[in-house]
Amino acid sequence: MGPIEQPAASERFDPDSPSTGLIDAARVARYWWAAQAVSGKEVLDAGCGVGQGARILAEAGAKRVTGLADSQDAQSEAVRRAGDVAAFVAGNLAALPFAPASFDIAVCFDAIDPSDRRSELLDELHRVLREDGSLLLASSSPERLERELASRFATVALYSQHARLASAIFAGDSPPDGEATLAVRAISSLAPAQAPVTLAVAGKREAPALADLVALADPFEARSWEDRVERARRETDETLLRVEQARERERHVSAERDLVARRLVEVEQARARSLAAQEQEVSRGAESSGRAAAVLALATTSRRMNALRSAAKTLLGLRR
Fold this sequence. Notes:
alpha/beta
């Protein structure tokens, strides 16, 4: 039985990265959201990446956090970054290296969608949860996810995670560093988000109720996308201009080709007329030459006849 595929290392959230963009905010928001349910609980972070999520859960008051990494290298990196607050092991999500009923809460945010062994993964997560345990999961297939969880858990609650741009107002010169209570309002004409991520809370008994949460990202990303859009617009305009210039050159070349073709036709027609005229001239010359030769032949024949007549007369005279 091979391991379940997990996100590549380049796709994992990197807490040492200077980026605080929308993707990073989305990943951190899931753990902040899950942190509401972990106080005093023993928690499994299945597919823990480099340990940032496990640190968030531990610092939220979890009794014990265990992170399951998909390789020895990932485990070592997670230990380096968050080994002071959580334990990390390397293992297979399709065959979790834990005894049944080992955890109160299991969190799995980045492993189920890329897996082609979802059923085994869910069975294993269910197995390691205690009788009143809960699973917190993320997926981009809500209908499938709800059906899969409902067949295994007594209660299932679905949440949706949307990527939005925000404009926040804070007292003072700068936003608070950390958690803040905010009133969130949406513009009435706000379009529905495309393909939001679905979060699920599934309980073997009662699923914990979790409050909505907003994670603010660095506005630099929005400016970066605006710059990209503007650059793409300019590149598109330049490409369209080059295409139009190429079409104009093609039209000019096509017109020149048509002109050359017409000239070639005219030259060929002139050549044909010239050849026809030459043939007529030769034919007339041939006819004239034929008549002259006939006259000459008649004259020659006439002279010969005259000579014969003269000779005949001479012979007759000699006989007489």
